[in-house]
Specification:
Layout: H1 2-16, E1 26-27, E2 48-50, E3 53-57, E4 60-64, E5 67-69, E6 76-79, E7 82-86, E8 89-93, E9 96-99, H2 106-123
Antiparallel strand pairs: 1-8, 2-5, 3-4, 6-9, 7-8
Length: 124
Amino acid sequence: MRLNWMYGALLASAMVAPSSAQISVYIGTPPPVIVYEEAGPPPSAGFVWIDGYWAPAGHRYKWVRGHWERPPFEGAYWTHPHYDHYREGWEWHEGHWDRENHDNGHRRDHDHDRDRRDHGDHDH
């Protein structure tokens, strides 16, 4: 009975977790050198070339070939997957589509606040 309750709590927390949450994947050896691939012509207008990359496959790496892809929404840009090195090993960060205004206006708001402070400093 207690085990069923724990599974239910785990499932509920997984359902309310943000969809952008990622599970960290660490590999002990560094990824191989990136393979250069010739893009060739796009299949049609509006397609973006996604460079190939080394994806984690267990405790090894698997090459994922570059390909053409249509952005999923207007103004989207591709953030290439990459690895960062930490004490635990090489951490994988998945590639994803992002918006051009990926700061959601925070920089604009920050700059606006700074401008107000700057104007106040000039008055003294």
